[in-house]
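Please fill in the sequence for the structure shown.

STRUCTURE ENCODING:
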């Protein structure tokens, strides 16, 4: 486990809005699932709207807030221009909202929302790159930050091109550009970011030490290569090239899972708290997603593909984020609000800053919802899917309530 320093951490007031509104977007995206059917096409405008509500509003919002805190900590260097996050937040908030509105109601709004998101992400990526130049540290996490921001730039540029294409302002093959966009953002940015931060956060919270990093280094190289191959194949309409990229990415993810298993075997912390349960469910969902993806390529059945993507997004990525929120947010609030008071007055413990019962309810409602929803997609059963969406919405309510309590300690 690598040591991290909090000396360069930005103020809580800068990053707390990312967490607050990210959870609100998560609540809205789970509510929206109640109005969808288990049979659909990813080319549908309403489906694209939900994907952007979830990925931009929840996933990106939370990741941006977390990265604002963790990048300078890991690099042991202050942000190049930390105040740009006061600009990034409203741009991402309004841009994501306009894009969802554009997909669902008025397509003409897509370029405007896309432009705001484009500007927000360019500012984010450029600031990160400028911050990277301030350090001489060259760890795997640092490398993933560099590569993921490069893919983020590719992803947002292709996404803006899609927005122009859908509004009729640009003549492009939207289907091909969509595939390039998805793999650049989801595989190139989100997955690479998770891989890099896993090497810091999972050993830190599980108290694991002295593990080999060969597997995760191989995972990193394979994923960046696989995403590049898929992106190129999609951009130039070479499906055979995309299949090679899929295979390379799959092998890379198995190496990543193997690294997490190595870390898990060395863990000292045995408490099965909300974070530990979330990590177990997240990696179980990731394995299931990969298996279903392999079955899809052999069978060609759309329901299997939909279930694979479902377990990747709502089982793996979502659980990784929500599980870490229960570790990161209490620490950030405690460090800023109560650390100066230690020895002077009674201060709360980290685990006292949120309701364990509320967190447990969030977890079990979410697990049940993911499983039922995945089965609903797999068998194209509306009752199972709507039941899963209902459980997910209930879990989102508990997440919202517990998050509000955690952040309230910082006021």
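FILLED IN BY: designer on duty
SEQUENCE:
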């Amino acid at each position: 486990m690598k040591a991290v320093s909090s000396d360069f951490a930005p103020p809580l007031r800068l990053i707390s809005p990312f967490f607050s509104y990210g959870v609100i977007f998560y609540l809205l995206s789970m509510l929206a699932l109640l109005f969808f059917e288990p049979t659909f096409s990813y080319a549908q405008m309403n489906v694209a709207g939900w994907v952007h509500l979830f990925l931009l509003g929840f996933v990106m919002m939370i990741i941006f807030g977390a990265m604002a805190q963790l990048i300078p900590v890991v690099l042991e260097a202050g942000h190049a221009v930390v105040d740009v996050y006061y600009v990034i937040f409203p741009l991402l908030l309004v841009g994501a909202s306009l894009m969802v509105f554009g997909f669902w109601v008025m397509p003409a709004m897509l370029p405007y929302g896309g432009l705001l998101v484009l500007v927000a992400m360019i500012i984010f990526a450029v600031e990160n790159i400028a911050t990277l130049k301030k350090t001489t540290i060259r760890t795997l996490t640092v490398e993933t930050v560099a590569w993921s921001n490069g893919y983020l730039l590719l992803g947002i540029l292709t996404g803006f091109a899609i927005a122009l294409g859908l509004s009729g302002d640009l003549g492009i093959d939207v289907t091909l550009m969509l595939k390039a966009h998805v793999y650049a953002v989801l595989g190139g940015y989100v997955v690479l970011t998770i891989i890099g931060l896993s090497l810091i956060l999972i050993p830190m919270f599980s108290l694991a030490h002295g593990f080999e990093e060969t597997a995760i280094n191989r995972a990193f190289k394979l994923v960046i290569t696989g995403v590049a191959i898929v992106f190129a194949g999609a951009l130039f309409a070479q499906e055979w090239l995309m299949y090679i990229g899929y295979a390379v990415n799959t092998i890379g993810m198995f190496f990543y899972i193997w690294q997490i298993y190595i870390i898990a075997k060395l863990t000292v912390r045995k408490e099965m708290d909300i974070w530990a349960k979330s990590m177990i469910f997240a990696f179980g969902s990731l394995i299931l997603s990969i298996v279903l993806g392999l079955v899809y390529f052999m069978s060609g059945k759309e329901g299997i593909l939909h279930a694979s993507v479902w377990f990747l997004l709502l089982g793996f990525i979502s659980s990784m984020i929500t599980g870490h929120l229960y570790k990161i947010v209490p620490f950030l609030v405690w460090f800023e609000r109560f650390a100066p008071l230690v020895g002077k007055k009674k201060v709360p413990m980290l685990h006292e800053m949120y309701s364990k019962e509320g967190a447990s309810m969030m977890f079990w409602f979410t697990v049940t919802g993911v499983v039922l929803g995945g089965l609903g997609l797999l068998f194209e059963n509306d009752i199972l899917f709507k039941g899963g969406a209902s459980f997910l919405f209930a879990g989102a309510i508990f997440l919202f309530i517990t998050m509000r309590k955690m952040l309230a300690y910082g006021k």
